[in-house]
Amino acid sequence: QGKFTLLRDTRTDGSFLVHHFLSFYLRAGCKVCFVALLQSFSHYNIVAQKLGVNLTAAKERGQLVFLEGLKSCLDLLFGEEEEEQPGQPSPLQFLSGSTSDLRALFEFVRVSLTPSDSDSWKGPVLLVDDLSVLLSLGATPVAVLDFIHYCRVSVCCQLEGNVVVLVHSSEASEDEENELVVNSLCHHSDLILWAEGLATGFCKDVHGQMKIIKRVSLQQVGEQDLVQVYQYKIQDRNVTFFARGLSAAVL
Amino acid sequence: LVFTEEDKYGLYSNLLFKYFLAEGVVCGHDLFVASAKEHPDNILKELPAPLLDETCGKELGDEAAAAKSEEFQDSMKIAWRYQNLPKVETSPTTFTKFGHYYDVSKKMSPELLQSIKWHSFYPHEELSSQPEMKACNMNGVYARLLQSLQRIISQGGFDGSDPQKKPKNVLRIGVQSLGSLVWGDDVCCTDTPEDIHSLTKFLYVLRGLLRKSLSACIITVPAHLIQNKAIMERVTNLSDVVVGLESFIGSERETNPLYKDYHGLVHVHQIPRLNSLMCDVSDTKDLAFRLKRKLFTIERLHLPPDLSDTVSRASKQDLAGSAKLLSSGCGAMAMGKKHLDF
Fold first, then answer.
1. Can you tell me the ipTM of this complex?
2. Residue A169 covered by a domain
3. In this predicted structure, what is the pLDDT of residue B97?
4. B12, B90, B255, B261: which sits with the fewest CB atoms below 10 Å from its CB?
5. Is the model's pTM score more than 0.90?
6. Which GO BP terms sit in this record (chain A) (predicted)?
7. Chain A contact for B83, CB < 8 A?
8. Does B233 touch chain A (CB under 8 A)?
C-alpha cells in the first residue's frame, strides 16, 4: 500500500510491464485509474484478454477508469463547442495552451480514484503509460514532476493506494528534459523495474534484461538498495524470467 | 504510423513513398497526399506502374535463389501493414500472393489513378484563413493539415461515425518531407527551434486520427537535417514503425567493395507492437536496398566472399571494420566473415 513504482525502459519496449500491472491490479480487485497516452483502448483490451482480464467489463462495473489520451486529445481539438460541459475541462487541457500545468489531469485522477459510498474496491491504483509523452506534448518537466508529486500525495498518502508510472530513458539520450524527469522519479520511487535491451544487441531468445531495485534506502537510513537482475523473454501470453545466461536456448 | 528517415538526397525515400501510394491505387484504397515541396498532383502522376503477374513471376523467379527476395516481401510488409504482421514466409513460391510489384521505369496509367478517390494537401494552395481547430500552439500549416485530414476522415466515413456511409475502405495517407523548411517548421535548421513541440504534437494528433479510423500513414522526414536529437527520440516514441534509409551516394561507402551491389542500407529502428505483448521480429536486421532499372528491392545484406589472396592489409581491416559496423546497430548477427587476426 502507498507505494510508488517506476517502470523504466531503455533500448527496448517496457510496455509488457504495464499490461502486467493492469491485469494484476484488476484481478486483485483494486480500483484502477489508467492514463493511457500512447495507445488506444482496444490495444490494451486485446492484450488484457490474453492475460485473462476483460477491460470492457471492468469499465462497466466501475472498477476501471480509462483515459484514452489520443481520443481525448482529438475531442479537445476537433470537438464541437456544445459537447464541452462547463466545469469539467478536458484532462488534457494543457494542450490548448491556456494553462501550462497539468492540474486538469490531476483533478481527473483525483476524482476518479476518490472512493464513493457505493464503492467496495480494495485500494486505488494509478497507472500511467507513458509519462515521457507529456513532455513531447509541450508540458514542462517541472509541470510533469508537480503532477506526479500531487498524485503521490493524494493517491499514496491520502488514499493509501499505489502509483505505477512508465517512462523511457537511455544513457546516451540527448533528451535532457526527459532524463531530468526520469532521474527525479528514480530518487522518489519505492520500487524500480528497469527493462533494458541487451548490451550485446538483438537476440531472439532473450528479449532483454530486467533490473529490480527495491529502494530499501528510503525506509531505513544506512541500508543499501536491493538490486536483482533477471533476463526475460516475452511470449504471446506471458513473460518468462530466468537468471542471466540461463535462457532456455542455452540450457 | 510509418516514420521514414529520408536518405540524404531524398531519392530513395521518394521512391518508397510512391510505392506506398501506388499500392493504395492498385488495392482500391483512397489516397491523401500532402507535400510541400512538390505538388501532390505531380507526385501522383509519377507513381510506378504495377507489374502484371506473368512478367513479375518470371523476372523475380530468376533472382529468387540468388537474392533471397522473400526479404523484399518482408520489408514491404513492415513498411505499410498496419495490423499485426503475419509470419515471414521463407518459400519463394508464395511471395507473389501478397502485395504487388511495380516497374519503376514506367508510369502508372491515368485511368488506374482515376478509379480511386484521392485528396491532396499543398500548403501553398490552401487558404490562409485561421484553422477552425481549437488553438493548440501548433505550427499553422500542421494545424491546417490535421484539420483537412480530420475533415476527410469524417466525411469519407473512415472512422465509422456514420453507419450509412458506403462499405469501409482504407485511407492511405502520405506526408512528404515533414519538418523541413517548406512546412514552415524550423526544426531542421537550428538546434533550438522556435516551437520545439510542433512536430511531436502534430504526430500525436495524427496518431490519434489514425487509431480512430481505418487508415495507414507514411511520413518521410529529412532526419539528417534535424539537429536536435531529443526530438528524434520523441518522434520514435510516437511512431509505430521507424525505418531509416541511408544511401551510399556521396559517402565513403560508395566505393567500399562490401557494398558494391547495393545502393544503400535500410535501418529498421522500430517495429510495431500492436495488440499483443510481443512483436514480430525478423531474423535479420541488416537490410540493404538497390535500385535496378526496373525494380527497387530490399534484401538481406550479404558480404561478398573474400576470394582474393592479395587483398592488402589495409582493406582487410576496412572490411572488418565495416562488418562490425553492420552488426553493432541493433543486431548481433554473425553474418558474413569473421576476421580472426591472431
1. 0.84
2. yes
3. 39
4. B255
5. no
6. tRNA wobble uridine modification
7. no
8. yes
